[in-house]
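Field: sequence (string)
Field: structure_tokens (string)

Example rows 1 and 2, in order.
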Amino acid sequence: MSRLLHAPPAAAGLRRRMEEARPFLGPALLWCVLHGLVSLGFFGASLLSAVERLAPTVQPLVLACGVVQALFLGLLTFAAALPLVLLGRHYVPAAAGVAALAVALLGVDSLVLSSLGFHINGLVLAVALQPRALAETGLSQTEVLLAAAGAVTLLGLDMWAGVHFMRRLPGPRRVLRLALVLLLLCAGERLLSAYLIFSHGGAVQHAATTLPLQAPVRMNRLLTQLTGTPSASGLRLGVSPEAGVPAASIDPASVRFTRRPDIVIILVESLRDDFFREDVMPNLWRRAADGTRYLSHHSGASSTDYSLFSLFFGLEAQRRDAVVGAGRAPLLFPALRENGYHQAFFAASSVDWMGLKDTVFRDVQGGLRTDYAGRSHLRDEAMVKDALSVVETAPGDTPLFLFLFFAGTHFDYDYPPRSDVFQPAWDGRGGLATASVPAEHLKARAWNAAYEVDTKVEALLSRIESVRGTRPLVLFTGDHGEEFREHGRVGHASDVTESQLHVPMVIFDERLPPGEVDAVTGHIDVVSTLFDLLGDTHDPARLGDGIPMTRPDASRYLLTTIGWEPRYALIGQQLKIRFGAGLPGTEITDLHDNPLPDAQARFALEAPRILRRLRGGTEQPAAGGTSAAASPATP
């Protein structure tokens, strides 16, 4: 008491208020934990849906982890209300209010997740605050007011119940100890989830992040070293009851192609769109006069494994962990097999370390050759030789499907002396030293690497045409782009910028008129485009998330991502919205990442279409015909 009397008045008052609030900390912790458990009611259906394709032995563990995650949400609510002890005797109603708001936010977030596939983020908030956003929900103004009145009433009742609970029911005295126990339990849950992800694949990660604010924890490298076994990143037969089943809702045996040309898909590492020009890739540029070039084509992700998932599954890259983790396979390859295609797959850019041999390419006929060694331009050379060996020995009456993944344009952008065209160029020595290498020198070296790939692709296509006696259907693109310090970085898989996502796309086929198409297209469109060009009549919506590039939609928004990190971009014809991890809200730019002076006005105008897009609404052009977008202009 003497210490209190001698303390400054402000400090004494503060200490007194904290002493008034202390008896209620235990009941407040219990009340917040109970509110966290309420989230299981909100997210239970989504959690059950996420675990239903896991092996029966794993399901109860993941569900138990969900209970602990709910406790974590309650603990976070308690922590958020803790500074309110400074209110003294008013702490109880204030803490009850925080708990009520937290459970209301959890309820809203569960609705957002079930409707849009996202938890609440900057984009969701920005769209929701637009004047026309409510109209898109289909609710009238009266219904909105009634819903608001009901929500306020429920919040009031929740606060009233919380006040009575905290003031009348005893709680634990050792609040800090209980909070630490809960925190350790939550940390243990994240470690268990990391082990389950390691042993059972990405579907567990998808399920383990169903509830909000659950940071994904991966320990695959450490657990591989400790156990001596690789992580379960692939299609795990026996782990998932449905492993190997195509992700699309179509039986491969029901796919009927009315034409069967040879098909060559050429994928080039780290090839951004502005590298496709006459001086850097002269042979393909010349060929493009007879092909269809898509000027606004974007990879599904800025990282290779997610990009290839999007390319061959026809699904948005953000779905990768759930789809691949559940053991699902692409529809394209078994459909080609059912239609008599001989398939061969070659990757000079090794995809082994990404697990792609066990995911995207697990069930391909003949397997995937990706064990090339040496410098990247030598690996490309060996790959082309192997592909031509298949071409030269294949029966003439059997249609071919070839996939080639060129490595030369990946860092450190390797090439032989014959392609030393652009100077001054970085010599490729000392990867860490690139921090002091001018960006123009790095880019010149990458141009030389692209020049070399162009030379090899021309030799490949010319030989195929000579041996087979006809031109194949060719699809040429990059897996993703590359930055050269446009945003302070070199490389890819770090953002959703134009440099990392905008890639060339050229299709050569007799059913497509030569020219340029300016509508936004993406890797998710490749599967439906191939099916359309080959004459299959299934609804594109059943094939995946894409639309045929033969009938592009100028009003669409394309969803792209980094892949391993939840940062996204919605890309439209005139507007690009970046959101997600590492961004405080939304960044609204044009397609070239330039700020717009009227960004907010444009965003408000587009908000209804964006909301429909996130809710899975489609604005696909009507089926029928295979002509490219309204009279593409001749290059």
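Row 2 begins here:
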Amino acid sequence: MRKYIFVTGGVCSSLGKGVAASSLGSLLESRGLSVCMVKIDPYLNVDAGTMSPFQHGEVFVTDDGAETDLDLGNYARFTKSPLYAANSITTGQIYQEVIRKERKGDYLGKCVQVVPHITDEIKRRIYLLGEKKNTDVTIVEIGGTVGDIESIPFLEAVRQIIQESSRRNALSVHVSLIPTVSGGELKTKPTQHSVKALREIGIQPDILLCRIATEMSDDMKHKIASFTNVDYECVFSAHDVSTIIYDIPIIYRAQGLDKIVCERLSLDCSKDTFGNWQRVSDTWKNAKETVEIAMVGKYIDLEDSYKSIDESLIHGAIFNAVRIKIRKIDSENLTSPEETEKALAGVNGLIIPGGFGQRGISGMIDSARLAREQRIPFLGICLGMQIQVIEWARNVAGLKDADSGEFEPNSPHNVIVLLEDQVDITQYGGTMRLGRGESVTVEGSRIYAAYGKKSIFERHRHRYEVNNRYRTVLEKSGLIFSAFTPDGQLIESAEWPNHPWAVGIQFHPEFSSTPLQTGYLFRDFIAAAVDMMRT
């Protein structure tokens, strides 16, 4: 039988179920097991692609072009689990498929209901992933909170899978909150009620991960165990960390979570390669210097809007044996050169991430200008590269009205234009240039030096590109185009000449960077920032 672990959450959202599931996956991989990570989101959207970053955080893109929840980014950074469209399941997908089958006549005239038709489709998708060859354990995270009406069909499907699989082949892991009330007192009652709600659905949790400000006492563990019918040794303290999230697997391992899971699922845990994670933590803790990077973006108000970039910068810092401070700047507040100068004063590097729409663009352009003129290491990602090209066109190439067709469709010099295959698009979900694609780098360029080869593969998510009509004039003015699509038609990278380090890329390297395998561009960008800090 295949092995399944279902991760649920209680009391409130944003408890860190994704990091908990990812940490568990990394622990099992360090024991020589292969894991498959799955995220279930109860929202009715088919995918996360059309959601605002202010509401839902970043969109993580898989190799096959799926626009998914940011938790898949956590899975990618913590584990080696293959991640594709099938690893992200939403209510919208489930109902869309069931209705398609009903219209086709697959249900032979039956009355289509939540049970069994919706739950059967949920189970089918989970089993399809879990039964893949070379998968030892499938870890399924259920989004939302126990008690939400949207989650009920998914929890019912989980209950059925646990019943069908038996306790030796399926585990329920519940993440719950132990809040601190006035006077600093810790309260276990919310966790008790959360487990009660889960049991009323028919699921008895096997393991509790208790989110708490400080490490739990033995007395509290015994109390929770007795009130929730969970074994004492299966109640774990998921206390806050003051360093980086990559310490969380270390906290769980110290409490024996991996051994308990392997024991309960009858898995061999004799192998141990956890030293790699310990080295990541030790490098961060032992770093003596801190490099400061400015991030000038459009969605700064929500911490998770640039989650993969934040983590990739940390990976670059760890590789270079330094710590990092990210100074996040809302580009809309940069209304003058003086404001830009003040906001970027003292930073060792500038990154401009992706985004959509005209808001805050002038502040980004002025930030790029300052980084170019003051020789500050620069990394532009997607929109960031387009900003880099617009700034150069205006201030160096002499195209004073240079702009993007996304912002000013009638500008006389749109150096950024809509992709040809996007012109007639009317449906906005899943229709951008998405997923893994090949780029060919130019020897002698910064990007070639970073990857060490001509042919590279990274993921894309965009509708606009550099206008080929302006390629010659921009190159003659000195701008370096350093990577292209294999047919040479699309520009994938731009670099400033006579600059310590400045690379703009149309793709998203943050989606493939991990703490154990740092993204090449983040490695070199932070190295250049460290050099600036030390001079």
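free_text_note (row 2): Residues 287-534 form a domain with the Rossmann fold fold (CATH 3.40.50.880).
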